[in-house]
Target: DUF2073 domain-containing protein
Amino acid sequence: MDLISAERLESMSSMEKIRLILSKVKRGNIVVLELGLTPEEEVKLIEMTMTEIRLDEFSGIEIESYPVKNESTFLNKILGKSGIKTRMTVIGPANQLRTVEKDKYQISTKVSVGD
Model:
């Protein structure tokens, strides 16, 4: 399992994040991102995953995130800043990671260890 800090993610472009995640998950690692992906990054990750699925090698990903928080304030609107806050995300190989339960405070998963 790889836990990736918000500090590391903030210094990366969207494509760098997606490539990092995809390479780790393809090796069988479960990735926990302290700072979650934006909805657009999640879509791009899923699109890239779909192009790389090979049933004999890589079966895809399972991804769960806490809901995105929208903390728009009057000051943020004036300054042109986004009030959208991404939150922790868990990503793993589809054949190893299963979401059991999810709410706004907790993500419960079941991890199957391959042979």
User: Anything to note?
Assistant: The domain at 2-111 is CATH 3.30.950 (Methyltransferase, Cobalt-precorrin-4 Transmethylase; Domain 2).
